[in-house]
Amino acid sequence: MADTRERRERRTKRSEAAFQEACGFFPGGVNSPVRSWKSVGGAPFFVARGKGALLTDVDGNRYVDFVGSWGPLILGHCHSAVVTAIRKQARNGSSFGAPTELESRLAALVRKAFPSIERLRFVSSGTEACMHAVRVARGFTGREKIVKFAGCYHGASDAMLVQAGSGVATFGLPDSAGVPASAAAHTLTAPFNDLAAVRALLQANPGQVAAIIVEPVVGNAGVLLPAEGFLQGLATCAKEAGALLICDEVMTGFRVAWGGAQEVFGITPDLTTLGKILGGGLPCAAYGGRAEIMERVAPLGPVYQAGTLSGNPLAIAAGLATLKELRRPGVYERLESISRSVAGTLLEAAQAAGWGERVCVNRMGSMFTLFFCPGPVTDYAGAKRADAGLYARFFRAMLEGGVYLPPSQFEAAFTNLAMDEAIVKRVRNAARAAFASLPNQCSG
Length: 444
Ligand code: KE4
Hints:
By secondary structure, the chain is an alpha/beta fold. The protein has helices at residues 13-22, 80-90, 101-113, 126-141, 167-170, 181-185, 195-204, 230-241, 260-265, 291-294, 313-326, 331-352, 380-383, 388-400, 421-437; strands spanning 47-51, 54-57, 62-65, 119-123, 145-149, 187-190, 209-214, 244-248, 271-274, 285-289, 360-364, 367-371, 403-404, 413-414. It folds into two domains: 2-65 and 330-436, Aspartate Aminotransferase, domain 1 (Alpha-Beta Complex), CATH 3.90.1150; 80-326, Aspartate Aminotransferase, domain 2.
């Protein structure tokens, strides 16, 4: 781990060779676009292992990890309870394509955390969860249109890749090529936090909107917080229009609270999607909601959805172990305290280097984004005001200081339960050096 006393250039030889080789196999050398570091420059490091709050790359460099596999690793890497649970289950088999009692045990915990979920289905990714939740909403209402928000990302299915966030925003793609106009035509978009725009869309499409889907706390435009009354307003608009409200809690579920954003903001969506933390680092996601809606899903009803590895025992075991740790008293208070400390440290370092007025932090619990623009940032248009070039320089400078932030201005950073004040000290040292290294004027 580089620190101020013995700062040395990061060694990158083996990662560069690995990246070279990977580019011969995968588009952009990666299996998911945001991992390419295309928007922040330089070749991505290749990970050798993670432990607690730290990642070690194949060249032996160690980093405080604020990506946490994009959210799932809320306990930190290689938590003993999770490793034990996976090992134990692996000795009984990895996959059966048949029901196991484990699935009902995890479902019971989900229902405890999310009372709005009366019935659910496990799937293997957030993309599947959102895609199927939209299909169920269409099947239940008999309507085709969906309202989503610019900068929100609900996975990589056709209907959702319209003004999406995350990697689509990172690479400045207007939308995705290959999505038939007919698929995108049914997806209407509004600015996040703009209830009037939602009402106008519903009035212009009477009786046609199946659902409004929203990240209740946005993570994929960078973090955006819902304005006072916005989420409650969405629920009212949806109800008045005969549409369903889908809360995409793939990122916020078990992250911002045990019961996700719907617990924090006191809303009751018709459908909810979950993922990331639900699988504790293994592929597990879910969609669910009111029983009368979910009973439309095959084999009970006419809405089809299936998956070879849905409810996979290894992933369920990792998820159960993770959620059990999150139920321990004081966990979310600890997460809040360390997250406040980290965000405060970044802002103090910015202030000390004369950047205090030129950056802002949006944070909800243990997810946050440092935007390189003055605040407030309340929607995607605001997030796009941030200087992505400066963010890229800051990202690379923090990397030299042994801190791994998300390789995109349009992503959320995550703290985890393996972080402590010693980690905050490392972040402070790295951030002071990183802000000091930035040019005082232009971006890039
Ligand atoms: P996955 O298909 O990646 O498991 O989940 C899609 C998804 C759905 N909903 C929300 C709110 C999400 O944040 C995501 C996935 N998030 C991105 C990062 N912001 C995953 C990282 C990646 O694409 O590699």
